[in-house]
Amino acid sequence: MNKKRWTIFLAATTAWLATVAATNEAPLSAADKRAVVEQLGQTLEANYVFPDKAKTIAATLRHNLDAGNYDAAPDRPTLARELTDDLIAASNDLHFAVGVDPEWVADYAARQDPARAAALRDEERRDEARQNFGFAGLRYLDGNIAYVDLTHFADPETGYDAAAAAMRFIENGDAVIYDLRYNNGGHLEMAQLLASQLFRGDKDQELFDYYYNLDGRRVERGQWVLPALPAKRLTGKPVYVLTGSTSFSAAEWFAYTLKKLGRATLVGERTAGGAHPVDRKPVGTDFFLQVPIGQIRDPVDRGDFEGQGVTPDRPVASADALAVAHRLALADLAKADPAKRADADWLAPVLAARPQPATAALKAITGRYEGRRIDLVAGKLMYTWRDRFRLALEPLAGDLLAVEGVRDFRFRIVRKGGKVTALERINRDGTTLTYARLD
Fold it and tell me: Quick check: 232 and 258 in contact, CB under 8 A?
């Protein structure tokens, strides 16, 4: 799919983890809000993959407007958040998001100008290069286990060289672990390229089958194992995919397809359940709608996992998934080759789970906060939001808490009179957001 569509895959997780960026603008009038809801409904009905559901969802938004549900929204970012919540509640589709981005809306129109479109593509390529096209980590674990940490699936048109280097790097491993626990999705074409290394090239094997709406016409595609690759194939070698509750979209498809085809063992937590391809459409001059425009089907029984997620073969907390997969890989290799049993036995104590003991200090942090909660599970602090997504918290110095798999923000416990009163999100850019304690 094109670059624009990939960008929307990635944006979905941003909608879970953060509020839409604030803008300086005049307060919204009742007429403004009605215009936004009406335009949003029209855009939804014109683009959503399920037309009948689109009409029902649009009617729900209009009903909420008439019921005064948006009257208290003082500005555009707040209205966008409320509309996002209502879209997800009405559809159970986590790909939906409403945002405020006048610059993007202007760029959307400007893409009709070839020069402006080329400049934007160059900017996107530079952004991708700074992220190494999603390849955040490549290394060999003890026992000759290749490990690939992927934050997203980049466009292979720009990320091919990075992908080829990664594929060559892992080709001598006895087994490979793909870490998709915090992968936000991306291009299925990159997933196709990487997955092709795991299958024979002389046999037709479909990986993905899907359709989507493109400027008013229906496009149907099938993606198959590629016959030519820049690296050796890993056929016959054990494969493990790490999953988490924030594994999303194309990351879920990579895991789901390999599981369906019996080519990988999934270790971790149930994934988010975002199976549909999406696009971003302008709503007026300030807002945009992230909307599912198609449906992907697996190569075995033409099913998907929308709203349900992908269930791992070995369910464990995502924070523990790498150690468990590492132990499992060593054990599986030892079964296939008794000469490797010594490695597995030697490394077993090092990889054994060592849960943090529960303490009074940790228990004091647990409880409900605005839109989220913290629980103590098996001696670990677990952070949950939207009643679906869950990540571990790691105590740092003072009252700071690191969030599993997240590099862009952390939390700070706010105390007053010796009691925990709030959870403060501290972003890397210095901005903060506070969630009051509710119990």
Answer: no
